[in-house]
Design a protein that fits this description.
The complex is a heterodimer of chains A (about 475) and B (about 290). Chain A folds into 2 domains: about 170 residues, no CATH class; about 250 residues, no CATH class. Chain A has 20 helices and no strands. The radius of gyration of chain B is 23 Å and the shape is globular. By secondary structure, chain B is of the alpha/beta class. In chain B, strands 2-1-3-4-5 form a 5-stranded parallel β-sheet. The N and C termini of chain B lie far apart (about 75 Å). The chains are: A mainly alpha (about 475), B alpha/beta (about 290). The interface between A and B is large, with 36 and 39 residues.
């Protein structure tokens, strides 16, 4: 059961909403959402509900103990234990296979690790649990420094925090100090249905019309198919995948935000028009913002951030991005993807901190052409890096790159499918317009209120008649 | 959480959006009713669905049907004779088309002859997702694959391209130098793997009842293997395929048709070049006409 499956949208969601806002059940709203969350998770992955509950138990107990304790060393030790337990769960289920095959091959006593399925959403709920422990330990947010709740109340809130179905499987990653204060009784009268409907239509459009259709053309980014394809098509498929992954994940995030808002909860934004970024730093401030913010707040700052000199800053950036890559998946290709971004971020910072780099950037700061060029370079390199994300093997991504650079002479019908190029371009149009609208502030134009209903009607129409078929979101595998 | 927009403005927004949406549905629904029956989708999966739906939703079906995978997919039988229908599914296998033909026959619309491709692609099994799209409730305007705007846009662009003079040019042929040595090396490695004999046999046996049903209805069933490169024909996997096929469908009981594969050329060791596909289509039509 996924956000775009009929059983979710026409059965699960309406039933849960009716129960949730039914006046006699107002006192048990939290229980209804917890039950709904566990049911939603169980439908998708019954065998791992216990693991989710274990994660909840670990984080509830340890965060409570940290909260209750007043001795700094004890608090630190308890939080560290909780974090180690969280990371152990993640390590065993997510990285066990990779570590085992790297050191012991594909046979031996740990062979069972090779067939162990990845519990859905484990990366997300583990990070949220760690965030909770760090928030309570740091004690610098008013919610956690105010009063200490009874254990029962804290456990309930923690179960809800981790199992709340709109974000439990693929984010956005919610910080405990922004979520816990929201946990209170909700009233249907406070829900802004029109705003939510707009968010949901846009989310479903990006996912079902753009991402689910363009995947039919980016399908050929697969070994060995791409070996015999001409450069132009390889290049367009790379761009197409860049559009697909944005539409898939931004669409998912919008749907999650919209559904959470239906129950009266605000989840953080995950995307802010990332493909208009003119630097890699800006890109990471706009792409998967909840993960970037988490990595910055709980990892980059913990490593010392930029307070320990230039070299350490570059190293920290690199480490954070490598770990961020590894968070996405247990494969060398994900580490390579993180490494590429880490290198680009460090190089960008290095250049901007040198005298000539600084002067150059100041000189062309307001230059429109320079801005476009910078944006283009960032977009192309980000798109290229997605190849390491898409292809399961580092060498395949390198082969794809090589073919893209050398297959220019293969232009015949057997090598270039114009339909693939055409539809990669066509399905990129909504994403380009979406970003262009942000750049040109279309929503502030005086004619926008007139056109807005038409824009939403067209999106609804295309969801109805031109949706693609897909049984998953790309980020569900993480 | 509530926005400051007044209720009347919200209502006006909803009414206008709903009106535009309904108008779009209405106009587009009327528009697609006037489109001719095209079969090409924007990608091979869509072409498969369109072909299957056109056949399943048509009155009478077609007297002659070709079933198979991407190997038979290229055969231009319909272009040569409109009584023929190519239900071979690129990326799929014969079982899917066979199921559609059997359902049609059960509804009283049986073909005269069916050609079934028999090879390792049968391991892919029947595409249930595609079959679901041939259910009766998909046969409504705007729910059919060929009513989708992307398929329609693609069809119209193709028509415009042809009207612009491109259609007058001869069809671009495959490069006769194909397949490349690298491709053949890959194919050789692919076909050097052992066959999952148990699964393959199970798939073959699964088709037996359906083939028997068609034969009982008087449908002539031809079983065949499409011509591939020698590296494929002689491979370990294909040898096992041939052996099991002959065991489950003995030549003395079933009508097997062999082709002289030295006369045909492939693009990649497996799929026929356009010119070879054209000749094979001629051959299949000729044999069928001869035997009926």
């Amino acid at each position: 059961m996924l956000f775009h499956s009929p059983e979710f949208f026409f059965l699960f969601l309406p039933i849960l909403l009716v129960l949730y806002y039914f006046p006699p059940f107002r006192a048990v709203q939290l229980f209804i959402l917890i039950a709904g969350g566990l049911f939603f998770y169980a439908v998708n992955h019954l065998e791992f509900v216990l693991l989710l509950i274990l994660s909840v138990a670990v984080n509830s107990v340890f965060s409570y103990l940290v909260w209750q304790s007043t001795e700094h060393r004890k608090r630190f030790a308890l939080a560290a234990m909780g974090i180690v337990l969280n990371l152990s769960l993640l390590g065993f289920f997510k990285y066990g296979k990779l570590i085992y095959t790297t050191f012991f091959g594909v046979s031996g006593p740990g062979e069972f690790l090779l067939t162990l399925p990845l519990p859905i959403g484990i990366s997300f709920y583990t990070f949220q649990g760690i965030g909770l422990l760090v928030d309570v330990l740091r004690n610098d947010h008013s919610f956690f420094s105010a009063r200490r709740p009874p254990l029962k109340e804290h456990v309930l809130k923690t179960i809800f925090f981790i199992s709340f179905f709109p974000h439990s499987i693929a984010g956005p990653i919610v910080k405990a100090y922004t979520f816990y204060p929201q946990i209170q009784k909700k009233s249907f009268g406070d829900v802004d249905l029109l705003r939510i409907a707009k968010i949901l239509i846009l989310g479903y459009f990006l996912k079902m019309v753009v991402a689910d259709n363009i995947q039919n053309y980016t399908f050929w980014i697969a070994y060995p198919y791409f070996l015999d394809i001409g450069s132009l098509q390889l290049f367009m498929m790379m761009i197409g995948y860049s559009i697909q992954i944005f539409a898939d994940f931004a669409g998912y995030s919008l749907i999650a935000i919209g559904i959470a808002a239906l129950f009266g909860y605000e989840l953080p934004s995950n995307f802010n028009f990332p493909y208009i970024s003119r630097s890699f730093r800006e890109f990471w401030q706009r792409w998967h913002m909840s993960l970037s913010a988490w990595l910055k707040e709980y990892l980059y700052f913990s490593l010392g951030g930029n307070r320990k000199g230039h070299v350490r800053t570059y190293l920290n950036l690199f480490i954070v991005m490598i770990l961020g890559g590894g968070w996405h998946g247990a494969g060398w290709n994900y580490l390579a993807w993180g490494g590429i971004h880490g290198t680009l971020l460090a190089m960008e910072r290095l250049i901007s901190e040198t005298g000539w780099g600084h002067r150059l950037s100041q000189r062309y700061e307001a230059d429109a052409l320079a801005s476009i060029l910078k944006g283009l370079v960032v977009f192309l390199l980000v798109s290229w890096a997605w190849l390491f994300f898409k292809l399961p093997d580092f060498s395949m991504a390198m082969q794809y790159t090589w073919r893209m650079l050398t297959n220019w002479l293969q232009t015949g019908k057997a090598f270039v499918d114009k339909t693939v190029i055409l539809f990669c371009l066509l399905y990129a149009v909504p994403v380009v317009l979406y970003h262009a609208g942000a750049l040109r502030h279309w929503a502030e134009h005086r004619l926008w209120p007139r056109f807005e209903p038409l824009v939403y009607a067209v999106m609804l129409f295309l969801i109805f008649v031109n949706r693609g078929s897909s049984d998953a979101f790309i980020y569900f595998q993480f | 959480m509530r926005s400051s927009i007044s209720s009347s403005k919200k209502l006006s927004f909803v009414v206008r959006t709903a009106s535009f949406f309904l108008a779009l549905l209405l106009f587009y629904g009327m528009f697609v009713c006037f489109l001719p029956a095209f079969e090409k989708g924007t990608y091979q999966g869509q072409t498969n669905i369109i072909k299957a739906q056109r056949y399943a939703f048509s009155k009478g079906g077609a007297p002659f049907v070709v079933l198979g995978s991407s190997e038979m997919f290229r055969l231009p039988v319909t272009q040569k004779n409109t009584e023929w229908k190519n239900l071979a599914m690129a990326g799929g296998a014969s079982q899917t088309g066979l199921e559609i033909v059997v359902r049609k026959a059960q509804a009283g619309e049986k073909p005269k002859a069916v050609w079934i491709e028999m090879n390792d692609t049968l391991l892919r099994g029947c595409d249930q997702e595609l079959l679901a799209k041939t259910s009766w409730w998909h046969d409504f305007p705007l729910l059919r694959e060929y009513d989708r705007p992307d398929a329609v846009v693609y069809y119209m662009l193709n028509q415009a391209y042809k009207k612009g003079g491109a259609g007058a040019r001869p069809v671009e042929k495959d490069n006769p130098a194909l397949p490349t040595a690298m491709t053949m090396e890959r194919v050789r490695a692919d076909y050097d793997k052992p066959l999952d004999e148990e699964k393959f046999r199970k798939e073959l046996l699964g088709m037996k009842g359906k083939i028997a049903m068609l034969r009982e209805e008087g449908v002539k069933v031809f079983l065949c293997m499409t011509p591939n490169a020698p590296e494929v024909q002689d491979s370990r996997e294909m040898q096992a395929v041939k052996r099991i096929c002959q065991e489950v469908y003995p030549p003395e009981e079933y009508r097997w048709q062999a082709f002289d594969w030295t006369e045909y050329h492939t693009t990649d060791g497996i799929h026929l070049q356009l010119e070879s596909a054209d000749r094979l289509a001629d051959e299949i039509i000729r044999i069928t006409e001869q035997e009926l």
